Amino acid sequence: MPADFPNDYGDAAAEYAAVRTHAGLVDRGDWGVVELTGRDRVGFLHALLSNDVKSLAPGQGCAATLLDVHGKVQVLLDILVLEDRLLLLLPPGTAHKTLEALDHYLFSEKVALTDVSAGTRLWLVAGPEAPALVERVAGARPSDAAWAHVAGALDGVALRLVRGARETGEAEVWVLAPAAEAGRAREALVAAGARPVGATALESLRIEAGTPVLGRDVDDTVLLPEIPSAGLVSHTKGCYPGQEVVVRIRDRGHVNRLLTGLVLDGDAVPEPGAELLAEGAAAGRVTSATRSLGLGRPIALAFVRREHAEPGTAVGVRVGAATVPARVAALPFTR
C-alpha cells in the first residue's frame, strides 16, 4: 500500500459499507505499470505467462502469472491489450523484478520493455455503483467482462478505465490517470460519490473475497495449483515456463496443501505465520487474518494440508499461548 495509506478515513465500518452498497475509492498508487511495445510483444508475452494473451483483442485483458520452471509463482499480474502496446498492472514492489524476469527471456524478439509506473497513478473504485459512477466522471465505462478496458477523459485528460476482478468481491473499475493529474482524478471521483477507503476496510473486503496478496499469501515457494487459480491459467494455450508441472498436478497428482479460508471462534485475530493444528499435528499456517467487518468475527486465509482442507473441517490456530478453535471455510467467504 502507499506509504501514507491510512488505516481508515475516520470510520472503517462506513468505508466497508460504502463498497458493499455504493462505491468506495482505494488508492492504488503503489502498483506498478510496465509497457510492452514492438511487433513481437504479444507472442513474446504469450509464451511466458500462464494465461492466453494471443486470443485477446484490443480492449480486452486477463489476469495471469509468471511461473518458474518448477511451477512456482514469481508474480501475479494483469494484462491490458491496446492497439499499439500491452500494459501490465503489477503488485507493489514487483515492477523492477518483473522487467528483469521478462528481459531474461528476451533474445531476438522485437519487444521494448518500459517501466511507466512513475508517470501513471492508479485508483480502484469498488462497489455496485462503481461502473456508473466512473462513467459519470470519465464519460465511458468498460464492459462487464473481467479486465475489459476503454479510454475515458476528465476535462481533456486521457484516462484508461479497466473492469477489475480482483480484490473486493464487488464490481470494480480501475482508473489509470497521468501521475500529474492524480489529484484531480481523485477529487472528481470523490465528488461523484466514491468514499475513500482505508486499509482496515480494504483488508476485510479482500480476505472475505478470498483474494491472495503477493508477498503475504503467495510467494516464490508457492505452486500455482496451491492457490485459487481458475482465472489465472489457460489449459489450452500451449507451453510456458512451469506448464508441465501445472498439467502434471492437474492430470496425475495433487498438491499437499491448499490456500483456503478459516473462520475462528472468539475475538482474537491470529498473526501471519500462526500455526494450524489438526488431530494434534501441524496442519498448515495462516497467511492473512482480520476481523471481518461483514461477518463480525475473525477470519483468515491459510495454507492447509490437503487432508484437512475440506470446508467444515475443525482445526486449531495458535494465538499466543492458546489454541483457538476454527473451521475451514470455502472461498470466497461472502458471495
Question: What does this protein look like?
Answer:
- This protein is of the alpha+beta class and 335 residues long.
- It has 2 domains: 12-207, Probable tRNA modification gtpase trme, domain 1 (Gyrase A, domain 2, 2-Layer Sandwich), CATH 3.30.1360.120; 256-335, Aminomethyltransferase beta-barrel domains (Elongation Factor Tu (Ef-tu), domain 3, Beta Barrel), CATH 2.40.30.
- 19% of the residues lie in helices and 33% in strands.
- The chain is built from 7 helices and 17 strands.
- It has helices at residues 12-21, 41-46, 95-104, 130-138, 182-191, 199-208, 243-252; strands at 24-27, 32-37, 61-67, 73-81, 86-90, 112-115, 120-126, 149-154, 157-164, 172-178, 195-196, 257-264, 275-278, 281-291, 298-305, 314-319, 322-329.
- Strands 8-9-10-7-1-11 form a 6-stranded mixed sheet. The protein has a 6-stranded antiparallel beta barrel with strand order 12-15-14-13-16-17. Strands 3-4-5-2-6 form a 5-stranded antiparallel sheet, covered by helices on one side.
- The radius of gyration is 20 Å and the shape is globular.
- The relative contact order is 0.16.
- The model has no long low-confidence stretch (mean pLDDT 96).
